[in-house]
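Researcher: Here's my situation. A collaborator sent me these components and asked whether they could plausibly form a single complex. I don't have experimental data yet, so a predicted model of the whole assembly would be a useful starting point for our discussion.
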Amino acid sequence: MSLDNNIIAHWKRSEFLLIGGSAGSFKLIFNIVKSFNADLDKAVIIIIHRKKNFFSEIEKLFAENSRISLKEITDKEIIRKNTIYIAPPNYHTLIEKDGSFALDVSEAIWYSRPSIDVTFESAAEAFKGRCTAILLSGANQDGAVGLLKLRDNGCLTIAQNPEDSEMPQMPLAAIEIKAAEYILNSEEIFGLLRQ
Amino acid sequence: MSTEQEILSVQQLDELIDLIKKFHGFDFSFYSKASLKRRVLRIMQNKKQTFYDLKHTLVNNQLFFQEFLDEITVNVTEMFRDPSFYKALNNQVIPYLSTYQHIKMWSAGCSSGEEVYSLAILMNETGLSKKSFIYGTDINTEMLKEARKGIYSLKKIKSYAENYQYSGLKGSLTDHFTIMYDAATVHSELKHNTLFSVHNLVSDAIFNEFQLISCRNVFIYFESELQEKILELFYNSLAPLGFLCMGSKETIRSDKFKKKFKVISSKENIYQKIVT
């Protein structure tokens, strides 16, 4: 699949980028973070599955390699442009209609907290069409239903090509329920985000 | 979970909030909407009820309301949740508290009691049990019953024990429990220093003076105005130089209260009341 004008236009007018990833997505997300220029003019929200008690160096590693400011989400924080937000472990991240984050410690979904579905579903209502969402490699089906809801609300939805994913289950689950408007290889994803 | 067309508009959510306030006396007006809405949709889905069914059941079925409340108020908690918080408490707060004659603590929004017993274990292992007392409060009476029992499944205890290990305490979590079949009961000596009672942070007043208040991962469910109102309650409930502990992703955002508290740990969100 190549990048048509539609996808490029929708990406360009998006104010928010949502990225969901699990097993096998870390390196790709790291490279995406690295690739953004200082004039991105969008807010990036990253949901990665990770274990709760290990103080992770993700933020530090990402921040050192990012040209735009990067931080772990705190409760009630207002979402700002040119900032990369990372969902904290052991919380669900929701998005309020006023454009702020709200955290939640309710039950894990698909054994995951943060759950990609939870963030995607609340983003669908808060952002409507002003958003691009990408679902990457992972070993369960979190994110599929959320991606569908984003698509139903007019967001640009993309799944990583399962053949290009280290763990195909997550993008496959999304593709099966027709949640992904586009299915792209990682190179195409980079190509799009560079636009 | 599926998204099969369960739709709940902002107006409908407000309607439910009004109805609950009127018929059951619980005020959810200033709860964070995204989370509240998700909980309500979950109930509608699990019970296969439309918005109109739900309204009808809430008014006409008193027993259903308890079930509804259990779902609405998030009752997920852990012992030694965020082990690094307990480490900070042990290193930065306990030495200070140990100089007091009596140490009164309040775990606000205690749900099934895990945090109360974690604090009780911390006090026990630091030799402060005899002079400490911990109050656990929640709006959910069913959860408080669970808390008083202090019985947890072995599966849960296993995950709590993992948290405990990272907390830097030297003992073993299971030393504080009697294990029978597939459940573990908190030792009665820990229970002696605890009291669980109903308290609604939204509507109830000060009931005691504390050296430490722990209210972790409760503020996330409240909008900023309500957070500020409850901060006032906490400030007034704290003894001079008393400590306020919030969840690891919660902070004091209000300028008014930023000035009234000193930051003890910015990472763990531990604050100390400044005496002016």
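Model: Some features of this prediction you could bring to your collaborator: The mean pLDDT of chain A is 94. Strands of chain A lie at 16-21, 43-48, 69-72, 83-86, 92-95, 101-104, 131-135, 156-160, 182-184.
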